Amino acid sequence: MKTFVLTAIVGATLASAAPAAAPVAVTLAASAPLVTFGTPLTLSGTVSTQKADKPIAIEATECGSTQQVTAAIPRTVANGAFSAAVAPGASTSYQAGFKRNLSPAVAVAVRPLLELTKVAKHSYRARATAGQALTGKFVLFQRYLKLRKRWRQVKRLPLGAAVPGPAKPALVSSVAFKAKLRRGTRVRLLITAAQAGPCYAAATSKSLRV
């Protein structure tokens, strides 16, 4: 009887001394911290179990919302790595989860897609494409001062009502305007962070010569 009790005590002691299983660690990183609306980016990470073919839930919380939605469910490869392509509609926070184990959140900022088009002599159209309407926001029409090597504001333009873009969730806000400039002048559009925010970063269009 004494031998049985001693064996039980020794077994319990060894069991209590056994190291606890290491917690599962999940990492997540974005290929770019800032993208233009409509431009995809890659989210990648690892799971410390290093097991293959395990589903990873990548959840997204978009600016203006408190709700997490599933952006992608990639599966791990042999070393526990995973990746997925996403195209955020606005500045978004991403988090990867494996079972109940979560990665730190990763923030990705998004800037609107600005486009400047010359439609006729002295006539232009400004377009801002984003995942949320930018109606009522102001864009700046600027010209480049070659000697001073800087941009100067020519007009401050309010964007009109948004219309659906070529694919969801794109919404296009635009404004037509006129401006008389010397031939050969470089021009562009700018939207400041104050106007684009809180869900978008500042952005500029490609420049063109009039």
Structure described in brief:
The chain has helices spanning 2-17, 193-196; strands spanning 29-30, 34-36, 41-46, 57-62, 69-72, 81-86, 92-98, 101-102, 106-111, 113-120, 123-130, 138-145, 150-158, 163-164, 171-178, 186-191, 203-204, 208-209.
Structural overview:
By secondary structure, this protein is mostly beta strands. It folds into 2 domains: 23-110, Immunoglobulin-like (Sandwich); 112-209, Immunoglobulin-like (Sandwich), CATH 2.60.40. It has 2 helices and 18 strands. Strands 2, 4, 5, 7, 8 and 9 form a 6-stranded mixed beta sheet that branches. Strands 12, 13, 16, 17 and 18 form a 5-stranded antiparallel beta sheet that branches. The chain has a 4-stranded antiparallel beta sheet with strand order 10-11-15-14, with no helix packed on it. Strand 10 (113-120) and strand 11 form a beta hairpin. The longest helix is centred in the first third of the chain and has 16 residues, at 2-17. The chain is elongated, with a radius of gyration of 27 Å. The protein starts with a helix and ends with a strand. The model is unreliable at 1-15 (pLDDT under 50).
